[in-house]
Amino acid sequence: MQGVKRKVIYVGGYELLGLVVGTMVMTVLTGKSPATTGLLALMITGIATVWNVSFNYLFEAWERRQRDRTRTVGRRVLHAVAFQLTLVCFLVPLIAWWLGITLIQAFVLDLVFIVYIPFYTFAYNWAFDRCFGVPSSAVNHEGNPHLG
Q1: Structural domain boundaries of the chain?
Q2: Per-residue model confidence as pLDDT tens digits over 124-142
Q3: What are phi and psi of 145, to 5 degrees?
């Protein structure tokens, strides 16, 4: 599966699962109601969805320019960590504003997600590629897909 269909299924599944887990974790960590944390998780999911599409577009554009396009463990780690670190820049201010806390407090609260999300992203990407095949950006010039 390639193109827009692949991206929509990828992002939809990634964010839906993330929304459910995020709401549960935020409820436990903050002691707030699921209605409060669920709405925050929904906003976070919206931002993450837009950034996920943008980030993957940029990552795949970079990947297409690489001599070796194999999706190695190192490349998957780079993808997962870079995605999370850039996403934090959008989310910490939102969390601070929504919960009425300082940026430092929001960062500390977000640390759970900062640690968890790269592992989640790595595992989700690996499973997604195994189920649906790798995108054309990960196929070497000889036409051989590599799952690393």
Answers
A1: 3-134
A2: 988 888 988 887 777 776 5
A3: -75, 140
